[in-house]
Design a protein that fits this description.
single chain; alpha+beta; eleven-stranded antiparallel β-sheet; 5 helices
């Protein structure tokens, strides 16, 4: 087993190097240690309530807007200065930003000053996708599994100029939309890459642990196409590695 773990770590290092060479050197990547520290401090109640103005940017004037949830919810922001700040938040998928309430005005968090955000008990981190080489800013991914091999959700919006939505009147009477979620995977301190579902595509991502994960899936009747099953497989993979926190609670 130790030999297999060593082989996997070598493969993981090579994959990290490849992804780094194909990514923007200034881009943000997923840092397991930072996210674990964030969770620990939140659980310990180390959250501040203070003016968040220093972390915001001016809003864009463009409309319409579409949100993961239209309502404002209490959330926690983890800054690059290692501060935890409690504030009212919502995730604007249309503009790919986290919005805050400041003096009854809507502003967006400066994505370059944020390590992560907890909103409705879900963890979001700003990352630069390994598929994006055009200098675009980091966008928010939801962390489903946090570990040496992490599993993420990327939210995208399909906006069409037809039929309004009674649940989202801010879109206007002529606009409709649908929110899509795509799974991404990410090695520690790497950039997210799109995850292709299916046994043949998914198993190789587990490297030297491929056989163990396949056996685990067969014995417990987990598939390789449903999101809920894939989450379990990623948690199991990280659980097999020493000293790993195998999920986001």
């Amino acid at each position: 087993m130790q030999g297999l773990k060593m082989i996997f770590r070598i493969k993981l290092f090579v994959l990290c190097v490849i992804m780094f060479l194909h990514s923007d050197a200034t881009s943000q990547s997923l840092n397991v240690e930072v996210l674990n520290k964030m969770k620990t401090e939140i659980n310990a109640g180390m959250v501040k309530i203070r003016n968040i103005s220093a972390l915001i940017t001016n809003p864009e004037a463009s409309k319409p807007d579409a949100f993961l949830d239209d309502t404002w919810s209490a959330g926690t922001v983890y800054t690059k200065d290692n501060e935890l700040i409690s504030t009212m938040l919502r995730f604007n998928i249309q503009k790919k930003r986290m919005e805050v309430k400041v003096y009854n005005e809507t502003r967006s968090l400066n994505v370059n000053r944020i390590n992560g955000v907890v909103l409705n008990q879900r963890l979001f981190v700003p990352l630069k996708s390994g598929e994006d080489f055009d200098g675009t800013s980091p966008i928010y991914f939801e962390v489903l599994v946090n570990g040496e091999l992490s599993l993420l959700n990327k939210f995208t919006l399909n906006l069409k100029k037809r039929g309004g939505s009674s649940l989202h009147p801010n879109l206007g009477t002529s606009d409709s939309f649908k929110i899509y979620k795509d799974l991404y995977y990410c090695v520690e301190k790497g950039n997210p890459m799109r995850l292709e579902k299916g046994k043949k595509k998914l198993l190789p991502k587990f490297g030297a642990m491929e056989n163990e994960i396949e056996s685990f899936a067969d014995q417990n009747d987990f598939g390789f196409k449903k999101d809920k099953d894939i989450i379990v497989l990623f948690k199991q993979f990280n659980k097999l590695l020493p000293d790993q926190d195998n999920g986001v609670e």
